[in-house]
Amino acid sequence: MSTLEIGAPAPQFTLLDQNSNSVSLSDFSGKKVLVYFYPRASTPGCTVQACALRDSKAELEKLNVVVLGLSPDTPKKLTNFTNKQELNFTLLADEDHGVCEVYGVWQLKKFMGRENMGVVRTSFLVDEQGNLEHIFNKFKTKDHHEVVLNYLQQA
């Protein structure tokens, strides 16, 4: 999956959010950041995952966690997704999939007999000092938020 190691500094990035504002990982120093990569806004699985994170925001905030969702979508698509699903966290547009590549989630995928490059659904928990604390890569879209919360509550 990813060649990134737990304890290593998280790769830094600055991308445009759903409102076309620049957002950097370093903006959240002192907080834990859940950087979650998903394939495409407004698709069924991505919607289930995003809405569950939306509904878990209060619990995540109590644990000092900020959510950043990254996909290769445009800011305009992210605006539509945010508005339609009433999302309450930041989505970032990685249109050239450069950040996806650095994090090791841009990979060859096989679907219905076809192969193409795309985002492998993965989440990275960055600690308050900007280091990788945990990598979540074994979950279903509907229980992603539970896997994250269970880890945080046991940590």
Task: Explain what you see.
The chain has helices at 44-55, 57-62, 75-85, 98-102, 144-154, and strands at 14-17, 22-24, 32-37, 65-71, 90-93, 106-111, 114-119, 122-126, 132-136. It has 155 residues and is an alpha+beta fold. The chain has one domain: Glutaredoxin (3-Layer(aba) Sandwich). The longest helix is centred in the N-terminal third of the chain and has 12 residues, at 44-55. It is globular, with a radius of gyration of 14 Å.
Features:
155 residues; alpha+beta; Glutaredoxin; globular; seven-stranded mixed beta sheet; 5 helices
User: What is the total number of structural domains?
Assistant: 1
**Number of H/I helices:** 5
Q: What is the CATH class name?
A: Alpha Beta
Strand order of the largest sheet: 2-1-5-4-3-8-9
